[in-house]
Specification:
Layout (H helix, E strand, L loop, with lengths): L9 E3 L3 H8 L10 E4 L4 E7 L5 E8 L17 E3 L10 H6 L1 E6 L1 E7 L5 E8 L5 E12 L4 E12 L10 E3 L7 H5 L6 H4 L11 E5 L21
Parallel strand pairs: 4-10, 5-10
Antiparallel strand pairs: 1-2, 1-7, 3-4, 6-9, 7-8, 8-12, 9-10, 10-11
Length: 230
């Protein structure tokens, strides 16, 4: 079993209308298809306004808690373990009030092969639709430097049977029927939310090997998601 970064790469190549329809957004947010999104980059996220409406925004991947003294802490906080988001100081405030959904067309994991190379795999919905990763977001501000950052992290859970062949963790995937529950800003009870943090069924996923191009964030084209064994 490879002990690689939990969820360190994903793609989003659905068009803005598909995303808008899937997440029932009133205003589509234009974006360019991405095939190899990496930590510290801007990612699309869907949250809930104070008025209870869904809204999309760009967040930096790597959560910076509002109390952090240095924004660099975000590089270590691209993932949050579902088992501890309601108790760990870095995440518990966001878990109560700042939950979001992160649209994705796929995510990647790596499997150890003979030698030192690791075989990347692309993991997609079987119906070629969209994932909605469970996310947390925070607003950070450095008043002295007049700098503000809105950032996020992807919540992970134990892997299902299919993903466990590659890694022991996977992103939490929220079903459409639970979007409102996860985004509800008035809901702070962990017992109501914890059932959403279970791994999705293996039957809903398609996994296939891809080339080593995904290892470099500079490679961001359809070539990254082509089936290929190293």
């Amino acid at each position: 079993m490879i002990k690689y970064i939990m969820c360190g790469r994903f793609g989003l190549w659905a068009n803005p209308k598909q995303v808008s329809d899937h997440f029932q957004l009133q205003e589509p947010l234009p974006f360019t298809p991405r095939y190899n999104i990496a930590p510290s980059q801007e990612v699309l996220a869907v949250g809930q306004t104070r008025e209870g409406q869904r809204k999309a925004a760009w967040l930096r991947w790597g959560l910076v808690p509002h109390w952090a003294k240095d924004e660099k802490v975000g590089y270590k906080m691209i993932n949050a373990r579902a088992e501890t988001i309601f108790t760990k100081p870095a995440y518990k405030a966001a878990a109560k009030r700042h939950r979001c959904l992160i649209p994705a067309s796929c995510f990647f994991e790596w499997q150890r092969t003979e030698g030192k190379k690791k075989q990347p795999y692309c993991i997609r919905p079987k119906n070629e639709g969209l994932f909605a990763f469970a996310g947390l977001w925070e607003h950070w501000q450095d008043e002295e430097a007049d700098r503000k950052i809105d950032s996020c992290t992807i919540v992970t859970t134990r892997a299902n049977e299919a993903v466990a062949e590659l890694h022991d963790r996977m992103p939490v995937i929220i079903g459409k029927a639970d979007f409102d529950l996860w985004l509800d800003r008035s809901l702070e009870d962990p017992e109501r939310l914890q059932p959403l943090l279970e791994p999705v069924s293996s039957q809903e996923l398609e996994l296939y090997p891809v080339g080593l191009e995904v290892n470099s964030p500079a490679n961001d084209s359809k070539e990254v998601i082509k089936e290929r064994k190293i």
